[in-house]
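wait is this the right file?? whatever heres the structure
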């Protein structure tokens, strides 16, 4: 499996550990291709970063809206300066934190045919590596 494909077994394992109905914050560590790697020759050439930010993100938001998924919030997007502690490969270019109202909302978008048609081609063209980490805040007490 490539470094940009979602593995349904990993998705199910994450879902089993996240309480139903709680918000989930996804940590995205991304490494971009210098030039987007589109299968479709009709796509205008651009950098991987441009494909991700200017094409993938808007397509993802459009899919979420068409599916009626609300409450997705981009919390933070930043450029990685350097890895101070941890593996140095892959070398991450950016990190993004995105909060979803529930893990089910995330799955509704990323497993839809609309996502595969409109958003995924841009993500795959943009990213040479991707870590996608599910987190949630445990209840105090």
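ok assuming it is, sequence goes like this
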């Amino acid at each position: 499996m490539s470094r940009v494909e979602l593995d349904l077994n990993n998705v199910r394992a994450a879902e089993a550990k996240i309480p139903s109905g709680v918000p989930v914050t996804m940590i995205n560590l991304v490494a971009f291709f210098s030039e987007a790697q589109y299968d479709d020759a009709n796509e205008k050439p651009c950098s991987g970063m441009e494909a991700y930010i200017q094409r993938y993100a808007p397509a993802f938001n459009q899919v979420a809206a068409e599916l009626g998924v609300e409450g997705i919030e981009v919390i933070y997007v930043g450029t990685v300066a350097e890895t101070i502690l941890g593996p140095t490969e892959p070398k991450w270019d950016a990190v993004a934190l995105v909060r979803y109202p529930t893990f089910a909302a995330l799955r509704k978008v990323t497993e839809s045919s609309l996502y595969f048609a409109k958003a995924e081609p841009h993500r795959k063209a943009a990213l040479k590596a991707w870590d996608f980490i599910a987190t949630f805040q445990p209840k105090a007490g």
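The chain has a mean pLDDT of 94. so i think its the right one actually
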